[in-house]
Automatic annotation (TrEMBL):
Protein name stated in the entry: Diguanylate cyclase (GGDEF) domain-containing protein
Molecular function in Gene Ontology: diguanylate cyclase activity
UniProt entry tagged with the keyword Transcription: no
NCBIfam families documented for this protein: GGDEF (TIGR00254)
Pfam families according to UniProt: GGDEF (PF00990)
């Protein structure tokens, strides 16, 4: 604006000063000098239109400059927005996306590791079947389900006959191999999807048969006994037959909320003891 005032040919600063001086002088003239021929009045009338026109030009020019500045600011705003969008796209494509993929992969690996850890914590490391901890969890869950459905549960405890003598004769490494073979044979003898087998401890195994009657449990027990005997694993110190055999105790009960599965396990354990007392390589059914 200052440049417009002082730049020729407009020279508005000088003209406005002169115009103000003439107007002041006219105001100070006596009344008898206020005639159409008054020099101050004549100047003011002549300059009035020119000054107004010049002021209008100055305003128009200033308005154009303002509009140009606004336009440049809008272009700058649009350019800045585009730069931000391009930057964000770059970050998303080359930084955030690979980072997200990495985090997703790490989460997937962590979930797999947790699942594997959970699986390993429920499996017996030697035989590859369920361990005692898994058995306890399974039986408690099945007990609740059988209570709701009013279904019987059969439980069979299996014990390798004279296993201590087997270990003493053939060594612990061969004893471990024997445990693996017996576990695999017992597991392979269970045909229903819901049937469950676990290593109960030492040379003992436990089989759980959901929704199974006494007759069904007796049939499965005989199948288990025969499957182990058919392995023909030598056992020269066995007092009943020169091969590895098992004894079995069977208990069948109706699940209910008034009881826990513990009495069923205890009944099967007593039946197993009776099988051992009655010659081994056989099974006994717990009294109802």
């Amino acid at each position: 604006m200052q440049e417009m005032y002082f730049s020729p040919p407009v020279n508005m600063h000088t003209r406005l000063n002169r115009y103000s001086s003439e107007a002041l002088a006219l105001a100070q003239d006596p009344e008898h000098l206020l005639t159409p021929n008054n020099s101050h009045l004549i100047y003011l009338l002549q300059e009035n239109g020119d000054i107004l026109e010049s002021l209008d030009q100055i305003v128009s020019l200033h308005q154009k400059e303002s509009e140009a500045k606004v336009h440049r600011l809008r272009l700058l705003e649009i350019t800045s927005g585009l730069v931000i969008l391009i930057t964000l796209a770059f970050l998303g494509l080359y930084i955030f996306r690979p980072l997200a993929n990495t985090l997703l992969m790490e989460r997937f690996q962590l979930e797999n590791a947790n699942q594997e850890l959970s699986f390993l914590s429920s499996i017996d490391g030697l035989t590859g079947i369920a361990n005692r901890r898994h058995f306890d969890q399974f039986l408690n869950q099945l007990w609740l389900l059988a209570t709701h459905n009013r279904e019987p549960i059969a439980l069979i405890l299996c014990d390798i006959d004279f296993f201590k003598a087997y270990n003493d004769t053939y060594g612990h490494l061969q004893g471990d191999e024997c445990l693996k073979e017996v576990a695999a044979s017992l597991k392979g003898s269970l045909k229903r999807q819901g049937d469950f087998i676990a290593r109960y401890g030492g040379e003992e195994f436990v089989v759980v048969l959901p929704n199974t009657t006494v007759e069904g449990a007796l049939t499965v027990a005989e199948t288990l006994r025969v499957s182990v005997e058919s392995l023909e694993i030598p056992h020269r110190l066995s007092s009943i037959t020169p091969k590895v055999t098992i004894s079995l105790g069977i208990a069948v009960g109706q699940a209910n909320l008034a009881n826990s599965p513990t009495p069923l396990i205890e009944a099967a354990d007593k039946a197993l003891y009776q099988a051992k007392q009655n010659g081994r390589n056989c099974f006994r059914l717990a009294e109802a």
